[in-house]
Amino acid sequence: MTEYTLNELMAVNVAHQLRDNEMGFIGVGTGGRAFTMAVGLPIVAARLAQLTHAPNFTVQIGTIISPDLKKIPREFTQSTLTSWPTAARIRADDNLDMFVKGKVDVGFISGAQIDQYGNLNITAIGNYIKPKVRLVGCLALPEHQAFAQRTFIITDQNSRTFIEKVDFVTGVGWNVNGKTRKDLNLPGGGPTFVFTDLAIFDFNAEGHRMQVASIHPGVTPSEVQEKTGFPLEFPKNIPVTTVPTAEEIRLIHDEIDPENILLKY
Amino acid sequence: MQSKLVSVQDATKTIQSGSKLTIGGNTIRRHPLALVREIIRQGIKDLTLYVWVAGIDVDMLVGAGCVRRVEAAYVGMGPLGLASNVRRAIQEGRIEYEDFSESSMLARLRAAGMGLPFLPTKVLMGTSLADHASHAKPIICPFTGEQLYAVSAAKADVAIMHGYYGDQYGNIQWPLLRDSDDIDTVIAKSADRVIVSVEQIINPQAVLTNSTMTYIPHNWVSAVVETPFGAHPGSCDGIYDPDMKHLEIYSEAAKSDLTFKKYLDEYVFGSAEEFDYLEKAAGLAQLLSLRVNR
Questions:
Q1: Strand partners of residue A61
Q2: What's the N-to-C CA distance of chain B in angstroms?
Q3: Residues whose CB is less than 8 angstroms from the CB of residue B214 and which lie 6 or more positions away in sequence, other chains included
């Protein structure tokens, strides 16, 4: 049996969902665990997809368009990012225009709070005007949720993060206060999957509520429900998340992330 | 072309308390921090800041009590996490704050740069941003009938930004290879006056023969200032990396009012001018170690 880490399990499953010729958008500028989820894990997934079933999958990382994923920097600093071989470095204003126009196929996002419709909050916990905990603001999370063809949410799961109703809707999922994406005139495809340390979720066809797609090996359904602040729908026969193959793990260790920079935290 | 080269002190003196200010750069990269420190030294207060993806620039001004209101898409310290002075000031209700997304804040700055009162956007539909924003109002497209939001122009009195190179006339140039993740040209167009600090003043002849590298021309600029390591402790992409050693000192100090006051007393008020600051905050050996190999 192939040994793998939880981050590798998540990265491999993200990779399986990426399609040839798509463009994924990855953000920049975070550290620690947030870096792994928002930057490191999507880069590993993208490169793995390139090396397996989707050779023409490309990414943009901030304003860097189609960087050479054969040459991922060994550390992420200002100078390694600036000198990373890439097809283009466009201006951030041009970049946002293309995003808003719908030219991003897959958006990789994360959040401090998520609800059953995939609404995300990265702005403030508690009252907005005088919050209990003020967070970073918005960045391009509203753009991801409004305009990307598909968004993949990658986050750790606990009952403080997965809650009935987010305190502040920074980015819109499938439904806000009874209004659907269609009601709201949002052109993007909306959240497609949620990848966590416990399970993978998608959204049901009728009400677009979050439902269990698969549970990671060794995790029980009651554990997943316990760490979710709203009632979850489970399929009759709950699938176990696909585990990485020996070849996928070899690619991650030997070719993609040999110094364990991207999945370290 | 007339020389616009002035000292940091003289450039900053023209900024009035109560002004609306916009600032170039991104998170901990290429902010005009020499100008920011001089604003703090001169005791300029009551500022309204229109910024995009901001960081240590806004955090320092808020921590020094120079700011009344912030409108932004982000204020954070990149890999160092949250901007603690801003977080505390919001949680304690000491500043007004209005959030926008990256494209809607860009639209507000663009509207100002185009001389328009507003631009339309779809991005706010359904978000709590729209519920709280005083600068976003629902509108119906007169051509298609679809629902949109109008976001108002964020028109600043003064833009301050840090460039790579410039001549004495205020022609600001970028290098061949740079990090492009900023909206400095939009920010320059949005304000009534533009003050640019640069790493190095270069020979005007070098500008004339490489004119496509000029991204901010002299006729947009009111004053140009030479501030080597003027983005320290942040980076100036292509020239030097961020000073993580000093940024950690900064981030630690920013965690309480008391420790941040000590930080300002030591590094900002305790340095009569920028060369004193650079010696105290880093020293020559540390500064040279930050330079990017080319």
A1: A26, A64
A2: 33
A3: B171, B172, B173, B207
Whether residue A186 and residue B124 make contact (CB cut-off 8 A), yes or no, is: no
Average pLDDT over residues B34-48: 98
Q: Report the chain A residue with the minimal C-alpha distance to residue B244.
A: A77
Q: Following CA atoms B190, B195, B200, B204 in sequence, which dihedral angle do they give, to the nearest 10 degrees? A: 80
User: What global pTM score does this model have?
Assistant: 0.97
Does residue B246 sit at the A interface (CB-CB below 8 Å)? no
Confidence of residue A28 (pLDDT cuts 50, 70, 90): confident
Helix axes B56-63, B84-91, angle to 10 degrees: 50
Residue B258, CA atoms < 13 Å, CB-side half-sphere: 0
Nearest Cα to Cα of residue B126 among B136, B118, B135, B141 = B136
Query: Three-class SS string for chain A?
Result: CCCCCHHHHHHHHHHHCCCCCCEEEECCCCCHHHHHHHHHHHHHHHHHHHHCCCCCCEEEECCEEEECHHHCCCCCCHHHHHHCCEEEECCHHHHHHHHHCCCCCEEEECCCEECCCCCEECCEECCCCCCCEECCECCCHHHHHHHCCEEEEECCCCCCCECCCCCCCCECCCEECCEECCCCCCCCCCEEEEECCCEEEEECCCCCCEEEEEECCCCCHHHHHHCCCCCCECCCCCCECCCCCHHHHHHHHHHHCCCCCCCCC
Confidence grade of residue A220 (pLDDT, cut at 50, 70, 90): very high
Residue type, B181: D
pLDDT of residue A230: 96
C-beta of residue B5 within 8 angstroms of C-beta of residue B224: yes
**Mean pLDDT for chain A overall:** 95
Closest alpha carbon to A151 in A124, A165, A172: A172
Of A77, A132, A142, the CB nearest to B129: A142
Backbone angles phi, psi at B24, to 5 degrees: -80, 175
**What was the ipTM of the complex prediction?**
0.96
Query: What domains sit in chain B, N to C, each tagged with a CATH number?
Result: 8-99+155-289 (3.40.1080.10), 118-152 (no CATH)
B131's enclosing H/E stretch is helix B128-132
Kindly report, residue by residue over B84-109, the tens digit of the pLDDT.
Answer: 999 999 999 999 999 999 999 999 99
Q: Residue by residue, what is the 3-state secondary structure of B241-287?
A: CCCHHHHHHHHHHCCCHHHHHHHHHHHHCCCCCHHHHHHHHCCHHHH
Q: Taking residues B141-162, what's their average pLDDT?
A: 97
Question: CA-nearest residue of chain B to A133?
Answer: B91
The amino acid at B11: A
Q: Which domains does chain A have, with CATH numbers?
A: 6-256 (3.40.1080.10)
Q: Which residue of B has its CA nearest to A90?
A: B180
Chain B, residues 94-133, CB within 8 A of chain A, namely: 99-104, 106, 110, 121-129, 132
> Which residues contact residue A106 at a Cβ distance below 8 angstroms, ignoring those fewer than 6 apart?
A18, A22, A23, A24, A25, A148, A149, A150, A151, A152
